[in-house]
User: What shape does this take?
Amino acid sequence: MTKHQTGTREEWLAARLELLRDEKELTRRSDELARRRQELPWVRIDKEYRFETEEGSASLAEMFRGRSQLLVYHFMFGPDYEAGCPSCSSIADSFAGFVVHLANHDVTLAAVSQASIAKLQAYKRRMGWTFPWASSHGGDFSYDFHVRFTEEQQREGQIEYNYRREGKWQLRGNEGLVGEIAAMTGTDAATYTRERPGMSAFVREDGVLYHTYSTFARGLDSLWGMYQWLDRAPLGRNEKGIWWRRHDEYEKA
Assistant: This one.
């Protein structure tokens, strides 16, 4: 027998209509938040950022690929990683499906990581991805947008991520789940967590580049297509242990 509440179709419909009212309110609230994101003040970018891409060295302006808007996913793949972060990989699995539709709206989507372009290209081939992916290694881009931190910052409690200051790093045994995830990237917990996920938005107007928006951590949930389906599944996200896997690991099984 199920342990979940059961009822008649009439009881279900009454509960569903009550939930629908709240869902519609959430939709209206979401529309309002989208409007407020777009109304944030733009911050002019005067710093010269350089990236390594499959086509060679590129400036931030060239990352737009001729379009007026650029969305960057800050993918956790540090210089010492041997493979990409599994959760970032799960998010990126959906990029190929909608990158063409974003382009149709004058938006370029690209991933940026600190690993070398050679590592990124090899992993991209392994995963069967086609979206643009650039290396920011050797530059300030990932540091300036608060998704890459030094060992000193980690040790001294100087990491500012998701708009708050973190405490000093302390080794906590085998680091549990974080240690397991770190092992999947070929690193330890300390090395793994010096990279962080996020997304940043940029616009180009009259030849000038501006930063318009960034979000991190749980702010990425709405960009994770899988979550939108799981939140409507009977058992929800059902997160137990390392509950995501790179899609190619299933293919090898």
About this structure: The longest strand covers residues 208-216.
